[in-house]
Design a protein that fits this description.
Rossmann fold; 11-stranded mixed sheet; 20 helices; about 10% strand; nucleotide-binding
Length: about 500
């Protein structure tokens, strides 16, 4: 019995975890001691910090509540009181000259300095559209010669290229964009009499991705038919009759069916001398006689040498920039219109590509281009479908009275030209002559204050009207840009 009791007394009591209880108690006491020491240290640190702050406040000298004494304090004998005043926020804004427009944000292309706020001015039509600030990405730019509008246009589209945008210039009457295209790794297509370059209006053009063979065949046939009709209407300076459209369609169908690379001279021959199978009653040749002779000017007349063979140049939409240089034919308005019509057809096939990305389309010297009905209709269609295509069109004027040269007052052409302005929510106005202020203000719905700004704007300064908001911006150029964009070299003898 005593042996059993001795065995029980020598047994160590353990808990459910199998660890002796005295070990757990010792560990808890040690943890409590560590936590107590940490609290004591934190309390001492907070106390020392509080004492230091009190000592700093006691050592700081403050001015009296009523201000410094003496005559230099400029205090009034009584308490300064102002009567209450109530007014509109528009009027009270004049009492706070240090307030300025917040700008358009920091996303996009840097343009220059906002002259009212002193901050940076940034603009990007695609960003503003995504943010809901504008609903139409098109831009109208107007300014007298020497005001700096061309440099602004070039800066906007070249600075957009690093953001993944591409640039199309379907017509460059002065050749200003050719050196810019070459500098950014693009291509300038130079056409003119005496040059080896040829432009075949019947080329298939760029095939958009995801288009089936049947769809592509139909699109090419439709574009060729519309293009030949537009070329004939441009040369004839009138609309075509249904009989003339039939003559073109019959000739085009025969040429495409019998040739792998159809060219314009073949179409002209079939219009003037249709096949017997196509002209059973002998009247088709008479119906298409005027159209045939109009198109013959492009292959054997005063406009020959540019459209009478297979294309020697290609429109590559994957390049950063493509420009059609028309400086060699600037004296012939009909030829410019024909070339622009062809390049617009090329460009449309690229714009229809859903994988084409976002693109600038620049219409320089717009007063030349808008005087041709066929070209104006194409421009209007591209402006209306800008959001669908993912493009931003830019129309560059000298002055808004250039629109008076587009058709007669009240005509369909004048209405189309006016609609281009209506579909552009970004209007950039550079310096205007005094006699142009009233027309500019009424056309662009400027306020009286905005109108008074225009004659005093300096070089590179412009009034930016973006929907209902206005800014005055000083365009800033990098020295390399200034050298590349300068259009005064011929006048200054190479000294910019």
């Amino acid at each position: 019995m005593s042996a059993e009791r001795e065995r029980l007394h020598s047994t160590v009591l353990v808990g459910p975890s199998g660890e002796p209880r005295r070990y757990r108690k010792a560990r808890r006491r040690a943890a409590a001691a560590i936590e107590t020491d940490a609290k004591r240290v934190r309390t001492a640190e907070l106390k020392a910090k509080a004492e230091a702050e009190r000592a700093e406040r006691r050592a700081t000298t403050y001015l009296p509540r009523a201000g410094e004494p003496g005559a230099a304090a400029l205090r009034t004998p009584g308490r300064f009181r102002l009567p209450r005043h109530q007014d509109t926020s528009a009027t009270l804004a004049g009492a706070y000259p240090f307030l300025a427009e917040g700008g358009l944000g920091s996303e996009g292309v840097f343009v220059g300095q906002d002259l009212y706020s002193g901050g940076s001015f940034v603009y990007d039509p695609w960003v503003l559209y995504q943010r809901g600030i504008i609903t139409a990405p098109n831009v109208v730019l107007a300014g007298i010669v020497g005001s700096g509008k061309s440099s602004l246009a070039k800066s906007l589209y070249t600075r957009s290229i690093p953001f993944g945008r591409r640039v199309y210039v379907p017509g460059d009457p002065k050749g200003e964009h050719t050196p810019v295209a070459e500098l950014v790794g693009g291509k300038a297509i130079v056409l003119g009499h005496g040059l080896a370059n040829r432009l075949n209006p019947l080329d298939e053009g760029h095939r958009p991705s995801g288009v089936s063979d049947l769809e592509w065949t139909t699109q090419v046939a439709s574009r060729r038919r519309d293009l030949i009709g537009a070329l004939a209407a441009t040369v004839l300076e009138r609309s075509l009759s249904p009989l003339e459209h039939t003559a073109i369609d019959v000739a085009l169908t025969a040429v495409v069916a019998g040739n792998d690379v159809p060219i314009l001279p073949m179409v002209v021959d079939h219009i003037l001398q249709p096949r017997a199978d196509d002209d059973s009653d002998g009247r088709l040749a008479e119906d298409g006689r005027m159209v045939g002779h109009a198109l013959r000017r492009l292959v054997a007349g005063d406009l020959q040498g540019l459209f009478d063979g297979p294309s020697t140049v290609a429109f590559d939409p994957s390049l950063p920039m493509i420009s059609l240089d028309l400086s060699r034919v600037a004296e012939n308005s009909t030829l410019i219109s024909v070339l622009m019509t062809c390049s617009s057809a090329w460009m449309e096939s690229a714009l229809l590509d859903p994988a084409g990305g976002q693109r600038w389309v620049i219409y320089d010297e717009a007063w030349r281009l808008m005087s041709h009905p066929a070209l104006l209709k194409r421009m209007d269609a591209q402006w209306r479908l800008a959001r669908h295509y993912g493009i931003a069109n830019m129309l560059i004027f000298h002055k808004l009275t250039d629109l008076d040269n587009v058709g007669d007052s009240g005509s369909a052409m004048r209405a189309l030209a006016s609609s281009l302005l209506a579909n552009a929510e970004t209007r950039i106005i550079y310096r205007q002559e005094s006699d142009q202020l009233g027309v500019t203000a009424s056309t662009l719905a400027l306020t009286g204050t905005e109108q008074k700004l225009l004659p005093g704007l300096g070089t590179g300064q412009g009034l930016w009207r973006i929907k209902d908001r206005s800014f005055v911006c000083q365009h800033q150029l990098h020295p390399a840009e200034l050298e590349a964009f300068d259009t005064r070299l011929r006048m200054t003898g190479g000294q910019s």
